[in-house]
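New to this. Comment on this protein:
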Amino acid sequence: MNFNLHVKLNDGTSTDVVGIAADIVAFETKFDMSMARLEKELKMTHLFYLAWHVLHRTGETKLDFDKWLETVDMVSAAEPKK
């Protein structure tokens, strides 16, 4: 169960990320909730955390979550790449 997010940074650059099982488990552990509940209980914090976790896991950012948030304009759902 992968997910796709689009991350736009304050400097105008953007990237698409693909989350994997490791990111889902980290999310469920941090927020003590199932990803299945996101459809009804989505908070922007959830999307930001998922995007950060993918970028941190893949080494694309070394910043901790709070510092990384200061660099982000928006995170949104993205279409899977074909």
Summary: The mean pLDDT is 95.
